[in-house]
Amino acid sequence: MNNKSETKHTCCGGRQNFWLWLGALVVGSCLGLLGVEWVNTMANFVATIFTRLFQFIAVPTIALAVTTTLATFGMQRETRRIFRHTITYTLLTTIAAAAVGMVLYIIISPDNLPMEMVKSSRLGDGVPQEVTNGSYFDYMIGIVPDNFLRPFIEGNVLSVLLIAVAVGLALAKMPEGENKVLLMRGLSALQEVVSRLIRWLIAVLPVGIVAFAAQLSAEVSAGTVVASIGKYVAVILGGNMLQFFVVLPLFLVARGLNPVHVMRRMMPAVLMALFTKSSAATLPVTIQTSEERLSVDSKVARFVLPICTTINMNGCAAFIFVTSLFVMQNGGVELSLPVMLLWLFISVVAAIGNAGVPMGCFFLTLSLMSGVGAPVAIMGVILPVFTVLDMIETAENVWSDSCVAAMVDKDMKK
């Protein structure tokens, strides 16, 4: 018990850590605004290292959490109940996010872009060529693993989740004996190792926050936000803010939870998502924070959060929906109510299949627009502002994951 209390204080908790992170945020922002080339280069270097480290730890976290939970509890009545509640809350919150985006799109009504801007835009070197040439069905087929090791090497989160579920259920069905005990002890030992690595990363997180903040402020000061697509950006940001501060807290209130308390406890994970722009990379922190600060049952946290990281994409659903409407509108498509409702459904389904990695929503939207023959060159105009949008959407995704975990945990304790 003492060890756990110490962990809470040193890794994820405490007002002292909050002020340390806030100070790091301010220092990093000031460094980025200086416009010094070597400072920006160093910030990019450190930020990249931290992102890679958290992505490195994310894959074993997902695999071990899901495998051990299912191996221990199998598909018992309680496990099925947890899964059912998780899917229900995920669908409700994701549909709500897309619906908020639709209402704001109708109210704000973004204008079409000048044709010369669209014609002069490029998708950028960061967009893989196969995305523009592929289809959403190809993407979904790619989720099904054809090799046990490849998903782990490539960091394919959904494929890793499928393997973890299969292995976990297979272990649960194994007869009790020496082999099963040996395997479970090995998995438990690996979880302890991963947990220790996570604590070390969180301990040095202020250094990463300085770098991430400097990187962001440098991009903004260099003209990242483009005024010509202000209404489009207003719809995206407005929808995210409403979902973050109004809709999700209302879900918590409806389940008898205090949204301020939940948000304060889960702030380390939300901040980590904001800077890494990857809900998958943030997952280790999300699990650790939910268990140690929010007191979510580990059985719930380690089963719900890996699932939510891969399918609960509130911010992504809103981005896919609003961006698809914006691109199709510029391509001459009449946005009637039936068309909007159809794309709301498509956006929710697409977001559920999206990988929780940086720019995942952008690539997926690009693939969808290519599939319907929309003018994808407009995505090149959106690309410069996506850095900021991606940060906010990822933070919203992790906040939504946290809310789902808190609500499921509350339901299980009834």
- The chain-level mean pLDDT equals 80
Strand content: under 5%
Count the E strands: 0
How would you describe the shape? globular
Outline the biggest β-sheet: none
Which structural class matches the secondary elements? mainly alpha
Helix content: over 70%
Which regions contain 5 or more consecutive residues with pLDDT less than 50?
1-14, 120-132
Series of H and E elements: HHHHHHHHHHHHHHHHHHH
C-alpha end-to-end distance: 25 Å
Q: How big is the Rg? A: 21 Å
Count of helices?
Answer: 19
Describe the model.
This protein has 414 residues and is mainly alpha-helical. Helix content is 81%, strand content 0%. Helix 3 crosses helix 14, helix 15 runs antiparallel to helix 19 and helix 16 runs antiparallel to helix 19. It is globular, with a radius of gyration of 21 Å. 46% of the residues are buried. The N terminus is likely disordered.
Looking at this protein, list some descriptive labels.
single chain; 414 residues; mainly alpha; 19 helices; globular; disordered N terminus
